[in-house]
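# step 3/5: fold
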Amino acid sequence: MKRAEPPDCLRPSGVIIGGVGEDEEYEELVRILEPFRSVPIETGPVTLSEDYLRMVDEVESAPENRSGADKSWVERARRRFREYFARVERES
């Protein structure tokens, strides 16, 4: 059976990440990552730079992001996403 081609909005950008295909691989991955689960991760307040906040304002004020702007492309992209993955078959 022919594999479905992804819509343009889902085409890979040069990065390929293979999935974990077998239960044995999964168990090995869990075993390898176990020591890292106990590594403390520092968390705290996030400080957003003025440049970042300026860029957010710029994106939010773009004509295509304003209230009333045509956002029908979002639903088309979501539909293509669902249609593509409905046709995907698991590789053995």
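# step 4/5: annotate
The chain has a mean pLDDT of 81.
# step 5/5: archive (pending)
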